[in-house]
Each structure stands twice: as structure tokens, then as C-alpha cells.
Write a sequence for this structure.
């Protein structure tokens, strides 16, 4: 069975690199995540402003800068593909960020509880991005676009690191501070 797996893997390398439905699907996915990154870059200052923890505020600011760089990387990917860098409305990120706005509205200003909600919202965004970049990087490999796959993997690793950073902020202080807050 391992032989068949290796053989089919070898057959798939570079499959559909021309004008295939898979490549069209791939480019559509890039447009989706491009829109998402630009939307996230606009949302992060609101999250920073709503946060109480200095560490969380800094994490949001650092990620805003990182996100702008990620948008630039996606523009490089579009250029490598000979495509115009253009976004396509990402309903998923619209929903996740709208939920985050609801947390800001429903929690008390200046509380660690709000920070907990902001962290969870931000991690939902990160998990969406991890799924998107992981899938797109694998499709790039299938399409034989190794240079594109490498660029996407760079962003994927940054998203994973941001998720770990947010977990650390939550575990090291914010969750415990929120647990102490009175109703």
C-alpha cells in the first residue's frame, strides 16, 4: 500500500499547473484570503483599542504590522501567477470579526474578561488563517508551484506563532485576572 501512495503522490506533483479547474479554485482561495488579510488589518486597531492588557495591545499591534507584510506576500504570489491581486469577499472572516465586535459591545470596558473575549476572537481568526494557508500551500505543491508554496508556508508559520502567543497571554495572566473579577 505504501508503494501505491508514493506512486500517486508522484503523479500529483505539478498536476493541473496550467489552466485547470484546480488552479482556478486555488486562485479563488488566494482572493478570499487576500480579502481576509486586508479586513483583518483594518480590524486589529479596534481590537487593540478595546484591549486592557498592555501585552495584548502590543500583540495586536505587532500582528497588524505582520498582516500588512502578509498582504504584500500575497501580492507577490499573485504576481508570480500572472494574476491581478484582487480580493473576493470572505464571508468567514466577516462573520468572525463581527462576532469579535459583539464581544467588545457585550463586555465591560477595562476588564480582563473583555481581554479573554478578544483573545478567543483573535484565535478564531488565526485558526481560520491556519486552515486557509495550510490548504493553499498544499494546493500550490500539487500544482507544482513550489515557490508559491514556500511563501504561503511562511505566512502559515507566522499565523501558528501568533496563535501560540495569544494562548500564552491568556494562560499567563489574562484568564486568571478575569477569574478574579466580580460580576
Amino acid at each position: 500500500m505504501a508503494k501505491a501512495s508514493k506512486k500517486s503522490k508522484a503523479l500529483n506533483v505539478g498536476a493541473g499547473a496550467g489552466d485547470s479547474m484546480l488552479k482556478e479554485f486555488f486562485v479563488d482561495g488566494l482572493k478570499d484570503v487576500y480579502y481576509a488579510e486586508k479586513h483583518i488589518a483594518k480590524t486589529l486597531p479596534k481590537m487593540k483599542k478595546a484591549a486592557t492588557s498592555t501585552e495584548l495591545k502590543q500583540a495586536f499591534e505587532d500582528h497588524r504590522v505582520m498582516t500588512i507584510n502578509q498582504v504584500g506576500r500575497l501580492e507577490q504570489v499573485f504576481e508570480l501567477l500572472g494574476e491581478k491581486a484582487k480580493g473576493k469577499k470572505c464571508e468567514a472572516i466577516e462573520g468572525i470579526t463581527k462576532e469579535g465586535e459583539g464581544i467588545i459591545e457585550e463586555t465591560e470596558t477595562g476588564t480582563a474578561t473583555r481581554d479573554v473575549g478578544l483573545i478567543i476572537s483573535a484565535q478564531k481568526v488565526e485558526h481560520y488563517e491556519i486552515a486557509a494557508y495550510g490548504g493553499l500551500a498544499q494546493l500550490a505543491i500539487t500544482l507544482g508551484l513550489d515557490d508559491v508554496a514556500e511563501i504561503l508556508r511562511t505566512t502559515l508559520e507566522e499565523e501558528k506563532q501568533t496563535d501560540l502567543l495569544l494562548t500564552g497571554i491568556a494562560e499567563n495572566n489574562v484568564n486568571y485576572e478575569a477569574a478574579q473579577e466580580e460580576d
